[in-house]
UniProtKB/TrEMBL annotation, chain A:
A GO molecular-function descriptor: branched-chain amino acid transmembrane transporter activity
Keywords: Cell membrane, Membrane, Transmembrane, Transmembrane helix
Localization, UniProt: Cell membrane
Transmembrane regions: 12-45, 57-77, 83-103, 115-135, 155-173, 204-223, 243-266, 271-294
Protein name: Branched-chain amino acid ABC transporter permease
Length: 314, 248
């Protein structure tokens, strides 16, 4: 396939790829202060893409998504702290735990719909935190403190790779056969089944990706903090932020999670030094505005009001 | 090899209500069977049991010699039997063509490539006369067009037997004639078998070679359309004297 045709067939994908390539090339020259901000932004984006796999693509809103972040974080802390694994191997462990947990939780919780699914996932997050609090090997509720070096470039390229894989996978599952099946499930699950769509399997498939990447992102997050603590690791506000990013950016879109991450990260970071907690007022107003006025999010709004972008962004 | 789907001595209970009692019915590929009965007599329930949407409380559903009750709905579609919904359920945010493409990708036709499935979808839209609205969002279609789309999606799964729930309901006399003509044309073209649940008597008597009547979950009569409308049980239960006179 020639390059021009490829570019025209998936402009959003290539736009995102270009953005990532620019970041990667610029990486070594980015001032450390900016780099730490970028690491956190990319981490937010990664969490948004993770949530997008399930909430965006199937309409199943997972309120307990932080459970995958938290267990991924603890898996990282455990293998790095106890077995002395390399932190990068710890990221893989975090991803693996997120994947396995998503398969377990998903095979039960995905049988519920709507608010029942949301409650079922929420409960798993609360339960996981309480279980981890009483496990001696995981710090007995005190957390795991590690003294690792400050390696912003390694963190940056790690989250870069995670995000790159997520963008590619998002493109892959939204196109072709799987994409048709997912859109059908999101629109009317019973009607989809009546046409032969194996809804249970498809939902579990994307939920597994969702858990895997939330686990990896959770592990990277605690690597940058050099320690895992139960309260922040299982903070339910993470679940809400993930949802906020996907709602603001555009549910189920390819570009939306990144835009949503920017929209949530900017107030988050600004109020961190001005008035901690006030960011949720701004984010809450944004979510309410988008949910009421433009439920398709930024990407949906652009497609609707800027006709020239309609065939370009997705 | 033609396939046959049969419900054998099926019972279905919803809490205290016995919706189906000992009902047996079978449809072979190429054959059109009408299923009639008053409101609430269990017609849709029987279709749901055969399509795998509901499990029978007792009895069996046999497709091509193998038991399929207990299989999920999508597995039945995979084996060549598709059901339409009484109230059409298109994917509203998708185009007409995309709606049909989903069916082509996931039905018994086993196509995995989206491009090939879209081609198949366009053929089906042509056949049912919806090619002009291929790019329209399903949400913008009228109720009658949605019914036609529902029918088209079922065909596009590659189904060899269709379970059709009131596809002729709510049509004007002209529309009804047109719909019957379309149905007959498509049926002859593809040669599918169909179990047609219907209230519209002229439609069901025209297209069916065999008619089964159920009332309060029980099968009360079966036979050719002209036999059934002369059956005293049927006249008493459902048709009334006027329709019986019209048929004789």
């Amino acid at each position: 396939m020639n390059f021009g045709r490829l570019l025209r067939s998936a402009p959003t994908l290539w736009g995102l790829a270009g953005f990532l390539v620019v970041l990667a090339v610029w990486g070594p020259w980015i001032p450390t202060f900016v780099l730490t901000l970028l690491i956190n932004l990319l981490l937010f984006a990664s969490l948004a893409y993770s949530m997008n796999f399930i909430a965006g693509l199937t309409g199943y809103v997972s309120f307990g998504h932080v459970v995958f972040m938290g267990t991924g974080a603890y898996a990282w802390g455990y293998v790095v702290g106890t077995f002395g694994w390399h932190p990068l191997a710890g990221i893989v462990a975090g991803a693996a735990v997120g994947l396995v947990l998503a398969l377990g939780i998903g095979s039960v919780a995905l049988r519920f719909r709507g608010v029942y699914f949301a409650i079922a996932t929420l409960v798993t997050a609360l339960a996981a935190r309480n279980i981890i609090l009483v496990i001696p090997a995981l710090g007995d509720g005190q957390g795991i403190i590690l003294n690792l070096g400050f390696e912003p470039l390694t963190w940056f390229y790690t989250i870069w790779v995670i995000l790159g894989i997520q963008v590619g996978l998002t493109y892959w599952v939204t196109h072709g056969r799987i994409g048709y099946g997912l859109r059908a499930i999101k629109s009317d699950e019973d009607a989809a089944k009546a046409l032969g769509v194996d809804a249970a399997r498809l939902k579990l498939f994307v939920f597994a990706f969702s858990g895997l990447f939330a686990g990896a992102a959770g592990a990277l997050n605690v690597w940058t903090l050099s320690g895992v603590f139960p309260e922040p690791a299982f903070d339910l506000l993470f679940s809400l932020q993930m949802l906020a990013m996907v709602i603001i950016g555009g549910m189920g879109t390819l570009l939306g999670p990144l835009l949503g991450a920017v929209a949530v990260y900017l107030p988050h970071n600004y109020f961190l030094t001005v008035a901690v907690g006030a960011e949720f007022i701004v984010i809450g107003i944004l979510v309410t505005f988008f949910a009421l006025v433009v439920p398709q999010g930024i990407v949906g709004a652009l497609r609707r009001y800027v006709p020239t972008l309609r065939g370009i962004i997705e | 090899m033609t396939i046959t789907i049969a419900a054998v001595e099926v019972h279905k209970r919803f809490g205290g209500v016995l919706a189906l009692r000992d009902v047996s019915i079978s449809v072979a590929e190429g054959q059109v069977v009408g299923l009639i009965g008053p409101n609430g007599s269990g017609k849709s329930t029987l279709l749901n049991v055969m399509a795998g949407v509901e499990r029978p409380t007792a009895g069996r559903v046999v497709l091509d010699g193998k038991r399929v009750d207990g299989l999920p709905a999508h597995r039945i579609v995979e084996r060549g039997v598709a059901k339409t919904h009484q109230i059409p359920r298109p994917f509203l945010g998708m185009t007409t063509e995309d709606n049909v493409t989903v069916a082509a990708l996931y039905g018994s036709w086993k196509v995995r490539d989206a491009g090939a499935a879209r081609e198949q979808a366009r053929k089906v839209l042509n056949l049912i006369g919806l090619d002009g609205q291929a790019d329209a969002l399903a949400a913008s279609l009228t109720v009658q067009t949605r019914k036609r789309l529902e029918f088209g999606r079922a065909i596009a799964t590659g189904a060899r037997i269709l379970l059709l729930d009131e596809i002729f309901a709510g049509l004007s006399p002209d529309e009804l004639r047109e719909a019957i003509r379309l149905f007959t044309h498509v049926q002859e073209e593809i040669g599918f078998g169909a179990l047609v649940v219907e209230h519209v008597m002229p439609a069901v008597l025209t297209i069916s070679e065999h008619v089964v009547v159920i009332e309060e979950g029980r099968k009360i009569a079966a036979g050719t359309p002209s036999e059934v409308v002369r059956d005293p049980n049927v006249i008493e239960a459902y048709l009334g004297t006027e329709a019986a006179r019209a048929a004789t």
